[in-house]
Automatic annotation (TrEMBL):
<dbReference type="InterPro" id="IPR005122">
    <property type="entry name" value="Uracil-DNA_glycosylase-like"/>
</dbReference>
<dbReference type="InterPro" id="IPR044147">
    <property type="entry name" value="UdgB-like"/>
</dbReference>
<keyword id="KW-0408">Iron</keyword>
<dbReference type="InterPro" id="IPR051536">
    <property type="entry name" value="UDG_Type-4/5"/>
</dbReference>
<feature type="domain" description="Uracil-DNA glycosylase-like">
    <location>
        <begin position="48"/>
        <end position="225"/>
    </location>
</feature>
<dbReference type="Pfam" id="PF03167">
    <property type="entry name" value="UDG"/>
</dbReference>
<keyword id="KW-0378">Hydrolase</keyword>
<comment type="similarity">
    <text>Belongs to the uracil-DNA glycosylase (UDG) superfamily. Type 5 (UDGb) family.</text>
</comment>
<dbReference type="InterPro" id="IPR036895">
    <property type="entry name" value="Uracil-DNA_glycosylase-like_sf"/>
</dbReference>
<keyword id="KW-0479">Metal-binding</keyword>
<protein>
    <recommendedName>
        <fullName>Type-5 uracil-DNA glycosylase</fullName>
    </recommendedName>
</protein>
<keyword id="KW-0227">DNA damage</keyword>
<keyword id="KW-0234">DNA repair</keyword>
<keyword id="KW-0004">4Fe-4S</keyword>
<keyword id="KW-0411">Iron-sulfur</keyword>
Length: 237
């Protein structure tokens, strides 16, 4: 475990300007704002991961929301997707409170870190393949720093799944061949030559499109989180 290394990585991520389209979009959104948040000073930068440096469980999303993480500076904070995710984490005993409204709201995660393969808010929530690939080294470094403790990961959505698999491979785990296919409830065990294996779990994304239509219910999300947490040794109630 290297808490200082992870903190340094988070600071470096927050200063990244590698993708011109994403830089322009995140800063334009921060200037123009949404009417409901007119009195906010938007973060307007890449959003680093959130959670303890000795996390045993990793939750991987897609990218920050334009008026969520891009506003608050914390992953899945201040938007409807975050409302669903953090309520579920609280329900299974992995978060100190069921809400996530701003970076200083007192929320703590227990043994869980939340991150994404793309750290900037993308237009229409759709990063390009080139932007995804440009951001991958950040995820690889984060995974390497977490390797001493992390034992399971929940990936939200097919985009995150496709982006995370090569990052896990670069960080030292062996991704099975043929490459595992994403699906809700998918489970893959990835061995490591110089350490313990990691359990990878697929879950539909907590987007409004999925939660409003019932494609992903709170029960479905809690089941995946509880299964992965148990596999990681967190023993949620």
């Amino acid at each position: 475990m290297d808490p200082q290394g992870l903190a340094r990585l988070d600071r470096r991520i927050a200063g990244c300007r590698a993708c011109p389209r994403l830089v322009a979009w995140r800063e334009e959104v921060a200037r123009t704002k949404r009417a409901a948040f007119a009195d906010w000073t938007y973060w307007g930068r890449p959003v680093p991961g959130f959670g303890p440096p000795d996390a045993r469980l990793l939750v991987i999303g897609l990218a920050p929301a334009a008026h969520g993480g891009n506003r608050t500076g914390r992953m899945f904070t201040g938007d409807r997707s975050g409302d669903v995710l953090y309520q579920a984490l609280y329900d299974v005993g992995l978060a100190s409170q069921p809400t996530s409204t701003h970076a200083d709201d007192g929320l703590e995660l227990y043994g869980v870190r939340v991150t994404a393969p793309v750290h900037c808010a993308p237009p229409a929530n759709k990063p390009t393949p080139a932007e995804r690939d440009a951001c991958r080294p950040w995820l690889v470094q984060e995974l390497r720093l977490l390797r001493p403790t992390v034992r399971a990961a929940v990936v939200l959505g097919a985009f995150g799944w496709q982006a995370a698999l090569p990052a896990f491979a670069e960080a030292g785990w062996t991704v099975p061949r043929p490459r595992p296919v994403f699906g809700h409830g998918a489970h893959v065990e990835m061995d490591a030559a110089d350490g313990p294996p990691l359990g990878l779990y697929g879950c539909f994304h907590v987007s409004q499109r999925n939660t409003f239509t019932g494609k992903l219910t709170p029960e479905m999300l809690r089941d995946v989180l509880r299964t992965a947490a148990t596999a990681a040794g967190l023993q949620p109630p």
